[in-house]
């Protein structure tokens, strides 16, 4: 009973998603449509997702993205993928979403980086015009594998859209294979982006032994941290890294299924969510790549609840506190907080647990 109750509550819960890579969020159904469009590629489903109980190394996860990129190489593909992803998040009760993606150019289809971003903005506007109940913003991603010149080019592109996208482009993401390149080479680009008013969400300490890089990047400081798996001393990080995160009050974007399936965390109970949550530090539950890892945000909340014994009230607070971590302006935060307040009574009434079920808070 309890699991069903919590599951129902997590579905009904209004949610904020702040760490979602566009191409990694493509669902089974959308992949199906893409495969039908491109039969000549001979791509099978098993190549684009990591199913229940499966584990992959981080390297293998990046191979999956390569396959998805082959399927998504025209403006038409991007438009379909982005609108599908936005609708699916909305169906899962996500009220505010920040999508991220690296602008790509495809010589053979004539796709340019600028058109890539424009098409995602078009998808966001299209969903809005259709009345899809979700507020969507976009983070332009820097892929660290592409080096400092490409990073600077991406920042300039993001600056352009920061001014012209009517508030839809709000920041930069730094991602890509964490084992390639060094953050210090990307600092000039990130500093420039920061100075021009773009918010920064940086993948940080995603793999072990990146203390020096993490330290450098934390000095910026970023506005949010993606994963931060190996920041704290118990995971081979250091107290001084933790202190910087706490001092600047930098929220963490935490993705449980992604970390366990990608093998950077051994099990759900060992996830660093517990470490930061016990410190009372802002931690936002996210999906990372809902398509590739076969999950959704409701499921991630349910995992946190069952693994760490969080009550419905604690889950509600977790979801509501995420509003303070978004990159959209204060007016948007205020509107979202009013929405949460409006919905609260309804959700706690609709999903009343059995009278004899007393919540056990473990954390």
From TrEMBL:
Pfam families: A_deaminase. It comes from the Eukaryota. One of its GO terms (biological process) is adenosine catabolic process. Its cofactor is Zn(2+). Residues 14-336 form the Adenosine deaminase domain. One of its GO terms (molecular function) is adenosine deaminase activity. Keywords: Hydrolase, Metal-binding, Nucleotide metabolism, Zinc. InterPro entries: A_deaminase_dom (IPR001365), Ado/ade_deaminase (IPR006330), Metal_Hydrolase (IPR032466). It catalyses: N(6)-methyl-AMP + H2O + H(+) = IMP + methylamine. PANTHER family: ADENOSINE DEAMINASE (PTHR11409), ADENOSINE DEAMINASE-LIKE PROTEIN (PTHR11409:SF42). Belongs to the metallo-dependent hydrolases superfamily. Adenosine and AMP deaminases family. Monomer. This is Adenosine deaminase domain-containing protein. The lineage of its organism: Eukaryota, Metazoa, Chordata, Craniata, Vertebrata.
